[in-house]
Sequence to fold (302 residues):
Amino acid sequence: MSTPNGVMVRTAATESGRRRSTVWPTLRAIYIIWYRDVLRYWRDRTRLVASLAQPLLFLVVFGTGLSSALSGAGGGAAIGGAAGAAAGLTYTQFIFPGIIGMSVLFSAIFGAMSIVWDREFGFLKEVLVAPIDRSAVAIGKSLGGATQAMVQGLILLILAPLIGVKLTLGSVAALVPLVFVLAFALSAMGVAIASRMKSMQGFQMVMNFLMMPMFFLSGALFPLSGLPAWMTVLTRIDPAAYGMDPLRRVVLGGAGLPSFALDKMGLTIFDNVLPIVVEVVILLGFGIVMLAIAVRNFRVRD
Fold:
């Protein structure tokens, strides 16, 4: 004869066993979804080459054109004050970290487009009905998009010698986690939005509406200091700004630009320069929030 306590113990043990039985399948699903996205990216060499066209266009055409225009105003002085001029900083060199961030931004957000494709072709439905936690889809897609965007951004480092930016081994090692955190935050945001989209046209429209303001307000093309009050507020609520600023500090700091000149261009809150660690924590927190929203969207989906 079973007692109520015995029934409760068996029920708790059963539930605990069920949770343990889904942990490894869920982890394996995360790996498979990540691996599938990375493999598709690696095999699509045309996409890899084409995705470099826009960053190169901004860097070569936009950067060279404005660099020539700013040379009459002192070039480096117009960008980073007296320290920028003393270091011989050109506008092309100034926007180089921003172009890396731009490549990460576009690649990470558009990487979530595969969710809409998978939904239209039925693959997503098969994954959602599998005996795994639906969070695996959001986590796997976010990590897959982050990996693609990180590789896309780091590839641009080969252009550094061509524009006169000297990178040290230490600066490159520091860039890898910074680029990944930025890619993860933006990829998670893209997954959170894509999880609610039912058509490719709707996803592209929303992304185009969000990406360009995020890019232009991130400080990729101009310093974030000395802006009008309304624009200062917008730049501080732009998550991409907290990823662009550390990239610029590491790249240009490794190239020899003094730290006080970088602080003048950097992100400040109430006139206090944010440390890189704080910026990374803010960006990572934003990514975790976006990932939680994506997980919830997949779990409540029919």
Observations:
- Residues 7-17, 73-78 have pLDDT under 50 and may be disordered.
